[in-house]
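Reply to dn_fold:

You asked what the input looked like. This is it:
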Amino acid sequence: MLCGNPQISAYSVPTHGGRSHSATLAFAMTRAGMRTTLCALVAVCITAAAPKGSDVQFIPLVDAEPILAAVPDLVPEPLRGLGRDGMAGAWMGWVAQRDSEIRARLERGDEDTLTNFLLFGTSFTREPRVTLAALSRANGKPLDALEAGSPLAGPVRRRAADLVASAARPEQNERLRFARRILERKGYVLKTREARPKAVAYLLEHFEEVIRENDRYAELLKEAGQYKDRNQELNTRSTLFKARGVSLDTSWQPNLAIELSLGALQQKGLLAPASVRRVGVIGPGLDFTDKEEGYDFYPPQTIQPFAVFDSLVRLGLSSADSLEITTLDLSDRVNDHIRRARARARTGTRYTIELTLDPAVPWKPEAVAYWKQWGSQIGTRAAPIQPPAEIGRIETRAVGINPAVVLRITPRDLNIVAERLHFDDLRDRFDLVIATNVLVYYDLFEQGLALQNVAAMLRPGGLFLSNDALVEVAGAALHSAGSATMTYSDRKEDADYINWYQNSGPAR
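and this is what came back:
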């Protein structure tokens, strides 16, 4: 069964989430990526986790059995019709295969990120940015985006040519090196002039493919809104991106909804002062081309682990000298980024996060206040990088994160659908797990497996917070503890709906 109030838009004005958390094309989603409500849980016994002394393990069949029974129509074809013995023999092979397939989706997500970079970037071209407003003003149907006469045709084609030329000599620009890797992975050797026109054609082809894909999502959402069955509508919304590439792009806004939820949990007595010591952040995301408008005038950065740290200390739920955060992500780009930050922190180097705010957006006062105070508990004000003139007027601020805080963030390679951390000492499980705009990339069956893995990493009484609608299974160890809604601006559907679930299962 599904429950909740997800708000999803395939075409939105700014931006899922988002990831703060893992995410999606900027013009494909609302700011949080998927404005979904976490509803349900599948879980088993639970208890808490920490980065030390832990191992990554595939989900065992015993934990998958409640999901297999709850959604029999969604059981993958290779597993259907197997008896108990047959399932026992096939399960681990299927999990390993599915793990590889999900990880392969990162490549498609990288290509979507490259399209964001193509449209919004300023580091490789003098051409005007193709903003969300420009996309929405384009004449004709989305399929005509590059047709002669389309206002997008000229700018996008020229930007594609400039991107390929710049990627051929990326020098120290991390984003251009990324673009070059993607293009070379597709077979375009940019050292040769003959390959460059083909690389440009690929960029344009993928741009049109993304436009067509977004059009399909818009139709699915339109149809979902006409369903008489609320569960059917929610099913469509909560699994909208189940076949899409897994994207990493993110933004700062969902973290405000998380802080609001943490404060509300504290007021309700579900979180006590100084009670949160170990936290898991699933899919922290990487601000490569920010989901808002794809800014690229500052280095790539990860936001959510530090945002959660900042909020927990500000609210008195954690102590800065004892809090440990483990990021759980299947992306080498995310994990390597955090490892490099930790290596620099060991030499005393701060990790600087750049924050932007568009003054033309009708932000809610709470959003502006959060933006202005972000990072006050974990760092000090730094001089922000000034944006190029072509971006227009935006407000900027920067925070230099203390090296000691950076060293309390530990990355782990983990696919939440297939894997979990195993802890020899049950007292080391997580007090809190957070996942925003992550599970929308999976179908109901895979969401169920993911929740079983979350449950196995939480301590008794531990909490799970998410903004994705999930599967509810009878007998689950996680139970609803309430919810919170945060509206960021006066723009349509510019909000996050965070539901809270608490583990009531016994330790095992």
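The longest helix spans residues 84-120.
Hope that clears it up.
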